[in-house]
Design brief:
The protein has eleven helices and eight strands. By secondary structure, it is α/β, with parallel strands linked by helices. The protein folds into two domains: 143 residues, Rossmann fold (3-Layer(aba) Sandwich), CATH 3.40.50; 90 residues, Haloacid dehalogenase-like hydrolase (DNA polymerase, domain 1, Orthogonal Bundle). The strands form two sheets. It has a six-stranded parallel beta sheet, sandwiched between helices. Strands 2-3 form a two-stranded antiparallel sheet. α6 links the parallel β4 and β5. The relative contact order is 0.17.
């Protein structure tokens, strides 16, 4: 007789899964620049940020920890590069803006809880599941979650800065499983990135669910994710868990 699967642990991505920024990055950067007497176009800053973030992440992965950087310095440098690419060449003028932005993005007021997140987290707790965070984030995340009222739902918060490895590196998922003292076959991960979350978790033997993000999914990606693993919204998670736990366990 086949054993029914009984999950014990859910791990969660955070940004664009449970939380999102209240305002686009370009708006936040332009607003702070204006407060310091600099007028820079919102669109230019948004585009510059995306380019600078990609370059910084490739040059110094995971906040440059292996290159001797701190996550704070990594972010301050990124702000400088963003403004430089948007046409501001005065690094001295940008320095206080960078400091202010770093503090502002540490504040819960800069973030908002996505619709259905709190109810879903409560529902998962009610069914006896342990929950934890596995996020490519820096040391500020714990305080953000505390301030916004979500920290109480999680046994622990594991960031890529603390772990030393970003998703989809299997070591960050293995570390979460070690901390929770569970096997991958009774754990599931939820996130909005196909590569970092969905594929990363499955590569270590966990179950996983892909949450619909703000951008349309690549059709090839969507076709490769079984319908029962795809969540159009967080409110679809509890029925998806019912379906998963109704299937025979992987032995």
């Amino acid at each position: 007789m086949a054993h029914r699967l009984q999950l014990r642990l859910l791990t969660w991505d955070v940004k664009d899964t449970l939380l999102r920024l209240r305002h686009p990055v370009g708006v936040e950067y332009a607003t702070k620049a204006r407060a310091h007497g600099l007028e820079v176009e919102t669109t230019a800053l948004g585009q510059a940020f995306r380019q600078a973030y990609k370059a910084q992440s490739q040059r110094f992965p995971n906040y440059g920890l292996s290159h001797g950087l701190t996550s704070r310095q990594w972010w301050l440098d990124l702000v400088q590069q963003t403004f430089h690419q948007a046409g501001v060449r005065d690094a001295q003028a940008v320095a206080p803006i960078a400091e202010q932005l770093y503090e502002d993005f540490s504040s819960p007021s800069t973030w908002q809880v996505l619709e259905g997140a709190e109810a879903t987290l409560r529902g998962c707790r009610k069914r006896g599941l342990r929950q934890a965070v596995v996020s490519n984030f820096d040391r500020r995340l714990e305080d953000i979650l505390e301030g916004i009222g979500l920290r109480e739902h999680f046994d622990f918060v594991l960031t890529s800065e603390a772990a030393g490895w970003p998703k989809p590196d299997p070591r960050i998922f293995h570390e979460a499983l070690r901390l929770a003292e569970v096997e991958p076959a009774v754990a599931a991960h939820i996130g909005d990135s196909y590569q970092r979350d969905y594929e990363g978790a499955r590569a270590v033997g966990m179950h996983s669910f892909l949450v619909a993000g703000s951008e349309p999914l690549d059709p090839a990606v969507k076709d490769s994710v079984p319908q029962e693993h795809f969540l159009p919204s967080l409110s679809h998670l509890l029925p998806a868990l019912d379906h998963l736990e109704g299937t025979p366990a992987r032995l």
